[in-house]
Amino acid sequence: MKLQKLLIFLFYLYFNAFTLTAQSSKSSQIDVLNYHVYLAPSFSKNYIEGNVSIKFSTSTQTEKVVFDSGDLIVTKLEGTHAIDFMQKGKKTIISLAQTDTNIHEIKLFYHGHPKKGLVFFDNAQKLYSVFFTSDWMICNDTPDDRATLKLDLLIPKEVVSVASGVLKDAVPVGNKISYSWHQDYETPTYTYGFAIGSFNKSADNYNGKPLKYFAEDYTSAEIEKIFQYTRDMMSFFEEKSGISFPQEEYSQVLMGHHYQEMSGFAILKKSYGQLVLQDSTETNLLSHELAHQWWGNLITCKNWNHFWLNEGFATFMSAAYNEYRFGPEKYQENIDSYLKVYDKIKSKGKDKSLVFKDWSNPSGDDRNLVYFKGAYVLHLLRKELGEVSFWKGIKYYAQTYCGQSVTTKDFQLAMEISSKKSLDSFFKKWVY
Ligand SMILES: [Zn+2]
Q1: Packing angle between helix 408-419 and helix 387-401, nearest 10 degrees?
Q2: Distance between CA atoms of residues 191 and 250, nearest Å
Q3: Which CATH class is domain 3-20+300-430?
């Protein structure tokens, strides 16, 4: 990769990483089973009004439960066992009546001006979500609580929505349309999301599963070309993980200025499409975001201290896909570029262990370490174990922890069991 292109690539990844700041990494007493969200955005005011029904269980009988609520203002609480609520900081605390059940259902009505979790565009009728889900829906916003989702979006009839799950209904309501998206598949809340806008489209399918491509300001022919390798990438990641693509469909949306994987779809910066059109081997960010459907969404870091298990993996997998599609030189080019970023951080004396003790206030270098040192260390592990043993271990890890939240210890153990080799000294040197 030429240096200029590399810098652009890094900037994109950095920008994506920059969206991450400290979310709570509490070990929760709550296990949410399902969210049903209703959201009505007001584009001119960067404002949303909504409500969320949360069905959850508690590990013990408890009088209080705490949810993440960003800057949202709660106006009303409903629920058979719900007594009262109070808001403190970015939390909403619910008082529950003493009952003999550990399963509860509450409904919260709220409104607010999300600052980080939703990206508005100066009065234009478009919008998308990025990462900070508790900015726009009240939830248990931690990567180790997975739940199913129903998301209802009330939006003007001139625009359409793309969201996590499958579209079950689109019903006209006056001059608006109410879209109803259902995800009958549990994922962590940070993967929930949606995009609203006016798009050109193209479509494909992979083993009968719809692949949908949306973009602003590109023709359908261009869109088709930009996303032409999606099926191929999907087949590659299925093979490496040993797990079929778990969602019912996959959508990619070119709009705005972020890169964000979400459950069943991804947002990619609008101008990235130009880069792909100019050079069809420029697929790193398409494959990076798709790789997250396995490494991130399906096998999730338990807390943000183990974030490299999401980002290091997706970054490594994009190089591995390039090797498969374009040859070993392309892979080596990517690995060299990752090492260059890592070396630069090291030369500044900012190297740290991949497992962060405290992810409450990461610097730009910290974030880059998670992506690029993370990917480089996976490359080194590949060298250490050899081709067959490494990929066997990667598959064993994915299949063992499919649908779960994991720590680095789980990954190490999976690779050790699979390879029958102690990796203590490798992990001590490169990871801890
Ligand atoms: Zn990523």
Answers
A1: 130
A2: 13
A3: mainly alpha
